[in-house]
Amino acid sequence: MPPADDLFLRINDFAINTPWLHSPMRLFATYGIVLFAAAIVVGWWMARSRDAVTMASALLTPVAAVVAFLAQQVVVSLVHEARPYAIHPSALVLVAKTTDPSFPSDHACIAGAVAAGLFLVDRRLGLVTAALALIMAVARVYAGAHWPLDVVAGLALGAAVSVLVVLLLRRPVSRVVAWARANRLRPLVATTA
Question: In whole angstroms, what is the distance from residue 163 CA to residue 57 CA?
């Protein structure tokens, strides 16, 4: 048995034996992505009282998440890996089964992108979001939706794309933020004081 199969089956066996975790893991694996949208809003709100570069990073974080998702879609279409439950039909699956490929995980990719982007806005917020991203990755495997490597690759791809997008674009975007702060758009990009 390949190591990926063995690790997935061990995690799936753990899931079978922890029914008290099924509901929270199912909820997080399915709807936890909403927390990342909320974290983006928190990052934007925090950046309003900081410099233009920080605000640019906050504004670019959702853009970077979209770019990371698009990159993930390219990779997933090239690799075309089967979902674990397609290989192991008797595996416990706590989320809706899909027919789309498994590698890399789109949930983990978006979570990794948001965590990395927000780390460039505020380190503490980035660390909290990174912890949520790790929980998302674990939940997706626990729920039977992904192989462990799918979520690791998703987190890494999302974080790498996000850092690249934010670092490449935050200087020019910070100039737009500085302009907006001197105009009617100020309440969107700065505190009013």
Answer: 10
111 Cβ contact list (under 8 Å, min separation 6): 32, 33, 36, 129, 132, 133, 136, 137, 154, 155, 158
- What distance in Å separates the CA atoms of residue 169 and residue 120, rounded to the nearest whole number? 13
Q: DSSP per residue over 117-141, as a string?
A: HHHTT-HHHHHHHHHHHHHHHHHHH
Global pTM value:
0.88
Tell the residue number behind the tokens 């982007």, with chain if given.
117
pLDDT in tens, 55-78: 889 999 999 999 999 999 999 889
**Structure-block tokens of residue 93:** 């699956």
Q: Give the ranges where the chain is alpha helix by DSSP (H).
A: 3-16, 22-31, 33-47, 52-79, 84-87, 106-119, 123-142, 148-181, 186-189
Cα-based angle 58, 30, 32 (whole degrees, multiple of 5)? 35
Q: Which two tokens mark 133?
A: 């991203």
For residues 4 and 56, what is the distance between their CA atoms, to the nearest angstrom?
40
